[in-house]
Amino acid sequence: MTAATNATTAAKADSGGLKRRIVPIVSYGILFLLAAMFLYPFLYAVLTSFKPLPIIAADPSKLLSPEWTADAYRQLRGIGVTRWAFNSAFIAVTVTLVTVAFASLAGFALARIRFSGSRVLLNGIIGTMMVPGIVLLIPMFLVLKVLGLVDTYGGLILPKLVTAYGIFLMTQFFKSVPVELEEAARIDGASIFQTYYRIVLPLAQAALIALTIATFQGSWNEFQHPLIVITVNQDLYTLPLGLALLRGNMGQNLQWNVLMAASMLTTLPMALIFLFLQRYFIQGVSYGGVKE
Amino acid sequence: MASGIKQQERQNTIAGWGFMVPALVIFAIFVVLPIIFSVVVSFTNWNGISPPSQADFVGLENYKRVLIQSGITQTDFYTALKNTTYFALFVVPAQTILALVMAVVINQQRLRFKQFFRVSYYFPSITSSIAISLLFMLMYQKDGVINNFLSTITFGLWPPVPWLNDPRGLFHIILGGLGITVQTVPSFMTTVTIGGVTLWNWISGPAVSLLAIIIMNTWTTIGTMMLIFVAALQDVPLQVYEAAAIDGATAWQAFRKITLPLLRPTTFFVVTLGLIGTFQVFDQVYVMSSGGPAKTTLTIAYLVYREGFRNTAMGIGAAIAIVLFFIIFAVTMAQRRITEGKPEE
Fold this sequence. Notes:
CATH topology of chain A: MetI-like fold
Structural class of chain B: mainly alpha
Number of helices of chain A: 14
CATH class of chain B: Mainly Alpha
Oligomer: heterodimer
CATH architecture of chain A: Orthogonal Bundle
Strand content of chain B: under 5%
């Protein structure tokens, strides 16, 4: 009786052990395969940007090439990609700095200062988030045209300095910060601005970083807005806009090495920032999700 | 004392509005004004070139041409509506379910290389949509990476498909396999039209060309959705699962009875984000296909741009955009009803 029970238990444990060994191998296998599916295209793009065009045309499915060249990158210099990169960086940095400043000021006021009209303002701002971006494409062009901002840096930058999402995010965050510190500071005679700047802002670091990253990423990758703002002035192309129009100009004769080179140059800065600040990217996404 | 409180109130009002001014000025000019003008322009025949003040008021003419009056504008709109709907119907469930499964797997306590998996799955989400579109255009070539991969895993059974140049509808292909083609289908399917599109064309399913963009889009956004699920999963206390395990629940039961119900608000959020995003798909279409071949990748957002900025019919474009707003609004409301209305199991 006991012996029999022991035997079945042993058999069970054995098969359990086998299962315990096989299941992880299979699941890790699937997870690594998935990772490969997400990363392989980038590896392929980087390598393709260093291949001579005839080799790509002969068999675009190959990862490696018998010969390598940096021709594509040299060609890009002639096309003016440095200028696009400068524009993209300049716009993204300006937009990010100002957005974070304006959004945190507004968020602080909406979360912390009791003033008449604040609730209406907050609801109004949240309400505009329901309007899909594409709806504003044409009227945005109209406003820019009337203000003389078409084909200018102003047109590229000014409309992007404030987002309802940014104000909303900062308001929610400031609401979650305990008030006691501020009250103490106010009693000690600090002005409202001093409490904002000295006390609350340092506490909001996590939200500020998340908003900084989200704004920078959005601005760096933005395509629709520059597409309608820039009609003739090629000096104002950003990387995504330049990239899309470069493809358009090639028509049916797509120079894949050049396109991949430009694509990877566009990707590289974001990739580097992401690798160094992964934690904050991931935090930023969860803010959006949890706070909704 | 009373005057002190009043003074405090006044001071607060000044400070409050003072803090708001920079944001409000920009917001008023570049958000509120465009929202108002989005409606105004849709009632005019503005061409986008002449000063807007010279445009004529045309009443509901643009809406009539988009929605009711037979003609190319109407056919294009309903074709775009069809394509966009198939796009959303494929992308949203696919990315939501896959992201959820990946989030649950990646969130396991004892999983190693967690950070590596998370980073690699999320990586496409941070890159430019234009760069990704160009990369996939190359991979979607007939002799490209994707056909090659599919052919390898099916041991050569997969016939190379000219992805972005293939206008055949997915459901048409399946029906064709069953012997149902445009020739054998009852004649009303090809004669009856709704919005200028025949019944047969309505049920085409997404074209192969659109499917290519669907797959790419799912691949790109899955990481973001996964991270949102992971964040929500981390809020579920472990004790809940421990208690379930003590009661003898299997992993599958725990997932069905604990994880899924607790994630309902997050799922609602992810689906809403997905719907809003997919109904506005634009960048990918602009770069990869310009709406072709045979208008099979024409989406509503692309049509708004094309009418307004290419065909100098800003009024038509604006009207389509307003219709799109109501569609997105209705769809998200409907999905809220569905998600919330589901009886608790």
